[in-house]
Amino acid sequence: GLSPLVPGQKKSLLASYAMIYGALQVLKPFRVAAAVAMSKLSADYLDMTQERFRCSRNVAIGCQYLMGQVMMGITFYVGVTVVSAITGVPIWG
After folding, report:
1. Is the entire prediction scored with pTM above 0.90?
2. What is the distance between the alpha carbons of residues 47 and 28, in angstroms, rounded to a whole number?
3. Angle between the 57-87 and 10-53 helix axes, to the nearest 10 degrees?
4. CA angle (65, 66, 71) in 5-degree steps
C-alpha cells in the first residue's frame, strides 16, 4: 500500500489515527486500574532491588528505570520485526 504521507492519503491517515486514539481511550480505565493494582508490587520490587544490590533507594530507582527502558526497547524491536514479517514490508527499505 501507499504511505499515509503521500499526497491524497490524508483521509486514511486521519481515520487510522482516530481509530487508534479511540481504542486507547477505551483502554485507559483498565490502564489506571492496573497501575493502582501494581503499586504495591512496584514498592516490593523496589525494596528487593535495593536489598539485592545493596544500594540506596535512588540507585535502585535508576536501576529499575534502566531495566524498564531495556525491556521497552526489546519489546519495540520484537514488535516491529513481527509486524514486518506479517505484512511483508521490509524494515530497512
Report:
1. no
2. 28
3. 140
4. 100
Are 63 and 49 within 8 A, CB to CB?
yes
Q: Which three cell numbers stand for residue 4?
A: 499515509
User: Which portions of the chain are predicted below pLDDT 70?
Assistant: 1-2, 4, 93
Largest CA distance in the chain: 59
Residue pair 60/49 in contact (Cβ under 8 Å)? The answer is yes
Sign of CA dihedral 28, 31, 36, 39: negative
Q: What is the pLDDT of residues 4-27, one digit of tens each?
A: 677 887 887 888 889 999 999 999
Residue whose cell numbers read 535508576: 62
Buried b / exposed e over 2-13, threshold 16 CB at 10 Å, is: eeeeeeeeeeee
Q: Within 10 Å of residue 49's Cβ, how many Cβ atoms?
A: 18
